[in-house]
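Q: What structure does this chain adopt?
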Amino acid sequence: MTRISGDFYFSPFVDDYCFFDEVDFGMRDLTLRIYEDLLEAMQQQNLVFQRVSDHLRAPFAEGSMLRHDVDDRKLHALAFARIQHRRGIIGTYYFRMLPMSFSEDVVREVHELGHEVGYHYEEMDLCNGDEERAWDLFRRNLERLRKVVPVTSICMHGSPRSKFDNKELWVRRDYRDLGILGEPYLDVDFQRVAYYTDTGGRWDGGRYSVRDHAPVMPADPYSTTNDMISALRHGNFPRTAMLTFHPQRWTDSPALWLRQRVAQTAKNYAKLGVIRWRSLSRA
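A:
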């Protein structure tokens, strides 16, 4: 149970009940302040930054891909893009073609800041598994996005509540026929690229993930962004990695942060239910 008006709330970071009055908002994770701290720690280690399309064209021996899945709150993604640009860092932003994610002005500015813009596709979910309709819709949405910016890579949206895996669109079709270089889940070698995602509102939230995970678990898991920063400062962070951010989760506003935390907790319970139900269905 999650309660805000009472005297406790549930924290998905520590899997325990905490007294609401004792929450230290100065120590909260997933804020823009700590995001900047992470970028600074990465730069202090002289890490090389790659866009996903750069990696697909010619993988560096060492390179960090900062990937951003823009599921919601597109202005949060724009804030990320501006922070990175100010620091001379490039990243990749995958936009859904829905109003909460897509805006021509936002997409154009992200591109003009030097970042890659890609398509965060979800057609198998939107078309209820109808492959022909999904293929037609994918091409139309890709063309719509390409009228604003160049697009050379795509990445599936997890659609955790759907029984359809959006990557199934490629069982009988090839996105390369449309000038797409690749899809991270299908074309990045995670044997050599460590994968970290903030899915579940934490960096080790794999058990809450329905589809947002790589086939190989990273050798060094981290729970919080501060754990990553500490590893970087001690020279223990992987030199080749992909970090996936969902910008809608990151905010410096205590009220919005708490609202997001409560919503994420509910989503995590729902995802666990979906995962367990599907596991039982396969048994």
